[in-house]
Design a protein that fits this description.
alpha+beta, Transferase(Phosphotransferase), domain 1, eight-stranded antiparallel sheet, 12 helices, 17 strands
Length: 491
């Protein structure tokens, strides 16, 4: 049996648990009191101060008896509790009766309500709620904050627990006391329903975008409270002090009038929860689109620069202009690339059809010459960053359009480019007869290893624009070798 000397001497016994962010051992204090020792590995980027909050004397908080350092660990000595809430829940076959659950939750929220401003647990869950001195108490304050600060590659894994993590944690935002309230709401649901409100496996999507299920078999006032704790918006969740007051009143029988009002309130809270889920989903979608647009810009910038360098290597006399996008001019020919622009969501929606695929960004490229006697000036292709082939897999695709077969129009560029915001572009992907525009060059990826064919095509067409040989295609649509998803869903 090893002894660790801090402010006091601690005899360390057998391990109790290992996992999360530390190892826990049985221990005895120098006065014989049963204790546990938690060893937290010293991690780069995380200081010892992050582990500890001054919480002595607060109700329903497991006290810290001693702290210090030993070998490669920070050491926390605490009294030995009887059991964890997880162990108690397992012994009760996964769920508690209403009165017992409210008693447990009241103890937990008393601990949360006693915390000073700015103190956040960050990883509240049944494993971190222990029965000690006749009350359910919170433990492991600081562990999650310490984990967040470390530079270890598995930081994210241990800085939150997926089943209980609030939307703001999934977004990488700052945790607040409302973060603990959300985890409290998950626990409330679990204690009474015997299951999690968000069971996974895609915890991120569920916590960010799905409304929690209705909690059954409880008074409407409690159901409303639990639902409010699970609001997606931090500012909309009740405070621990508010929860404590409402828990203390929830077991009192409601009068007929109060019961009706509580039921109406429950319905309104459920509606608000569903609305917040929609708002959160929209926010996540917008954030995802911004990230994808940044990736599209970065990817296309490299392709554009390589194409420019290839042109200048083969034709050093080419004049380069980069005011908006860029143009390469040699003799009477030009190769022009527009600026990359962001595409609005659902921009390919046409008629009563949902968008065939999702476009994030777009630009266009054209090889042009002086107009010939057939009023022909060259060709242009659309360049879209989208998931044309496989849903959710975004790449740069090259495509082009032509005038619909039933329309007597003739353009100076054939085929030609259209932005995805153009209604005619959206219509070209539907099965509606007689659309004004049709696909002349089916979407073909030109990034992620497919750049060389793209460069060769446009070097040749630029050369044709310079010497005047570029001409109207003999037939359209052309065989690009591309494709796009065919599934159609009526809206």
């Amino acid at each position: 049996m090893e002894t660790i000397n801090l402010k006091r001497a601690w005899q360390v016994g057998d391990p109790i648990a290992s996992g999360g962010f530390g190892k826990v051992y049985e221990a005895k204090a120098d006065d014989g009191a049963p204790a546990v020792i938690k060893l937290v590995p010293k991690s780069p980027g995380a200081s010892r101060e992050l582990l500890f909050e001054e919480l002595s004397g607060l109700p329903n908080i497991i006290p810290v008896w001693d702290t210090g350092e030993w070998k490669d660990y920070y050491v926390i000595a605490m009294p030995r509790a009887e059991k964890s809430l997880r162990q108690h829940l397992q012994a009760a076959n996964g769920r508690l009766g209403f009165d017992e659950a409210v008693a447990v939750l009241t103890d937990v929220v008393q601990g949360l309500a006693s915390l000073k401003a700015g103190v956040v647990h960050r990883d509240l869950k049944p494993e971190n709620v222990l029965f000690y001195n006749g009350h359910w108490c919170l433990t492991d304050f600081g562990i999650s904050r310490y984990a967040e600060a470390t530079t270890a590659p598995d930081t994210h894994k241990y800085s939150m627990t997926d089943q209980y993590a609030a939307p703001e944690q999934w977004r990488g935002e700052r945790a607040t006391p409302a973060t603990d309230v959300y985890a409290f709401g998950v626990m409330a649901f679990e204690l009474l329903q015997g299951r999690l409100p968000f069971p996974g496996p895609d915890f991120r999507d569920q916590h960010l975008h799905q409304a929690p299920p209705v909690i059954n078999g409880v008074p409407p006032s409690f159901a409303s409270l639990a639902n409010e704790c699970l609001f997606k918006a931090q500012a909309a969740r009740p405070t621990p002090a508010n929860i404590l007051i409402r828990l203390q009143a929830v077991r009192r029988p409601a009068s007929p009038g109060a019961g009706r009002l509580q039921a109406v309130n429950k319905a309104i809270v459920e509606k608000e929860s569903a609305q917040q889920a929609l708002v959160s989903a929209q926010r996540s979608r917008e954030e995802s689109r911004r990230e994808l647009f940044n990736a599209a810009e970065q990817s296309f910038r490299a392709i554009r620069e390589t194409l420019k360098q290839r042109v200048l290597e083969d034709a050093p006399a080419t004049n380069v202009s980069e005011s908006r996008g860029f143009s390469l001019r040699l003799g009477d020919g030009a190769l022009i690339i527009d600026l990359v622009q962001a595409a609005p969501a659902d921009c390919l929606k046409a008629y009563d059809y949902a968008p065939i695929f999702d476009v994030i960004a777009y630009t266009a490229i054209a090889a042009r010459k002086p107009r010939d006697r057939y009023d022909y000036e060259g060709r242009a292709h659309s360049l879209w960053y989208c998931d044309a082939h496989d849903e959710g897999v975004y790449r740069w695709y090259e495509l082009a359009f032509m005038v619909g077969a039933l329309h007597a129009e003739r353009g100076i560029l054939n085929p030609f480019a259209l932005p995805p915001t153009n209604e005619a572009a959206a219509g070209a992907f539907t099965t509606v007869m007689g659309t004004a525009r049709q696909i002349a060059w089916q979407p073909l990826p030109f990034d992620q290893g497919n750049e060389e064919q793209f460069y060769e095509r446009w070097l040749a067409w630029f050369a044709g624009a310079v010497d005047g040989s570029i001409s109207m295609p003999s037939h359209m649509p052309e065989q690009s070798g591309g494709r796009y998803r065919q599934a159609r869903r009526r809206t």
